[in-house]
Amino acid sequence: MMDRLDERIYHKPVMVEEVLSFVNQRKRSVVVDCTLGDGGHSQAILDNTQDTFVIGIDVDDGAVAVAGKRLGSMFRGRFHVSKGDYRELNWHLAQSGVPRVSGILIDLGVSSRQLDQAHRGFSYWVEAPLDMRMNPQSPRTARDIVVQSSEAELERILREYGEERFSRQIARAIVEQRDKRQIETTTELVEVIKSALPARARYKQQHPARKTFQALRIAVNDELSRLDGALRRCFSLLEPEGVLMVITYHSLEDRIAKRVFKQAETGGTGLVRTKKVIRPSEAEVAGNPRARSAKLRVIQSQGSWGKGRKR
Ligand SMILES: C[S@@+](CC[C@H](N)C(=O)[O-])C[C@H]1O[C@@H](n2cnc3c(N)ncnc32)[C@H](O)[C@@H]1O
Q: Residue 236 belongs to what domain range?
């Protein structure tokens, strides 16, 4: 398939300096990059530390093949790639024989590789089948959701995951359209969305299909439902003083990270290192518009030796 051979680097990593400032420089520490993508964060960590070993995880075969090959040959003996879901981090660590780690990075959302590879159906700009799976082996595509969901379920997905103001109108238009003819492609869906919106919403600065596409992507990849448990599990796999770093691009994701971190701090097992959430600088956003909505939160493990112990 095209993306297995396509070795270009598409994705510009977000808030690299900020992430590096939390990475421990201790000898022989292990850091997990849970969302490897094109490997930008992993590469920065490997470049800026001496003995750190990085385990890169991704559900996307393209990311695993391309970044895995590139970083594997650049940093022999210091990098290992593991294909799969970071929400099963215990499994990935067991495969590498590593019980605990000193750093975990989760950079949520979609990668530029996924967006730019037209055939994967993430982009509303180009015609493609409605797919949007990050893991090409997972069973459900965006088409399945568009074809099979009830109007009420579609409305919920668009409202909750897309924060789409016109969720009701768009859900209605999708159901009416599929009664006439099935919606198969990105451009067909864009046309249905446009037809559902009032004229003033159609000509805004942002693309009228942006929120619907975001919502479907989140639903297809089940990005929000298990985030809470996944963050707790990741946190529990840290060594004392190890850090869990989470970059979010969606207010619901950020709220979940904030709440989980706060609970760990209140319970005396964690110390929130980002009392104020970290945002990218204006200069970074100017050079990488994808960074615009990014937020970084970091929590440090206080180990299991007692309540509220400070460094
Ligand atoms: C924003 S990109 C990461 C970009 C990366 N930090 C870089 O510098 O290139 C998010 C990546 O996470 C992957 N991903 C999303 N959900 C995942 C999950 N549950 N488990 C593992 N990888 C996941 C996606 O396939 C995508 O490649």
A: 2-109+224-301
